[in-house]
Write a structure and sequence with these properties.
Number of helices: 3
Radius of gyration: 26 Å
Number of strands: 15
């Protein structure tokens, strides 16, 4: 019987260990004002391989990074009239190319409804996604900064386009877009929330067992059968 509970406990622990935190925003979450060139469209989605909790996230382990930025350009180092950057990479690729991510969740943050910008720590910049790329041939990887006062900026980072021959683009030389938002209402982070336990057997009128309970019932039944099968047979003395 004991091994059944061990297996069930391992399943529960494994589920908790897989908890992640997601950062997700897009241009629809902000008042967007292009300042240099017309780059109004963007989206970011970063899966952080840690549970959602208070503390400093300084280049945390990442499972996946997906983001898009697109717009029209005039008079830039790249010479492109327009661009549509799409990146979908692993966390290892993100850091290997020279990128970084940093923010801090305050100790009083209420995590049940995600983390709003107002719950980040910092008097000025409270969130930095720096998609800087070194020697990848790209001009437009993004730097996204959000501030405690409800302002922010999206611009190209100081990307090293090529090392041979040397070619580097400075911050904002391709595009600059200013952002405004309500810090108390902009949810930036969400975490995996355990599902609440289902109703008792038959309480919903359907008599359905959850997958977890069904699996546990099968394991317990198997244990009882094995114990009965292994029980020595007692012979009656004559």
């Amino acid at each position: 019987m004991r091994w059944c509970f061990v297996v069930f406990f391992v399943l529960l622990v494994d589920g908790a260990a897989g908890a992640q935190t997601r950062f997700a925003v897009s241009n629809s979450d902000f008042v967007v004002t292009p300042q240099f060139n017309n780059v109004p469209l963007f989206s970011f989605e970063v899966d952080i391989d840690l549970p959602l909790e208070a503390g400093v996230y300084d280049n945390p382990p990442l499972a996946r990074v997906r983001y898009t930025v697109q717009g029209e350009l005039v008079n830039t180092p790249s010479g492109f009239p327009a661009f549509a950057l799409e990146r979908d990479i692993t966390g290892a690729e993100f850091y290997d190319q020279g990128s970084s991510l940093r923010f801090e969740i305050g100790p009083n943050a209420v995590l049940d409804d995600g983390v709003q910008a107002a719950e980040f720590i910092g008097a000025d910049v409270v969130f930095v996604f720096n998609g800087r790329e070194i020697d990848t041939g790209r001009f437009h990887p993004a730097l996204l900064e959000l501030r405690a006062d409800g302002t922010g900026r999206l611009q190209n980072s100081n990307n090293v386009v090529s090392s041979n021959p040397p070619l580097e683009v400075g911050f904002g030389q391709e595009y600059i877009t200013d952002l405004r938002f309500d810090p108390g209402n902009l949810t930036l982070l969400t975490g995996d929330v355990p599902e609440p336990p289902g109703p008792p057997f038959g309480a919903d009128g359907g008599g359905a067992l959850s997958i977890e309970l069904l699996a546990l019932a099968v394991l317990v039944g198997m244990s009882l059968v094995l114990r009965r099968w292994r029980r020595p047979v007692r012979r009656r003395l004559r």
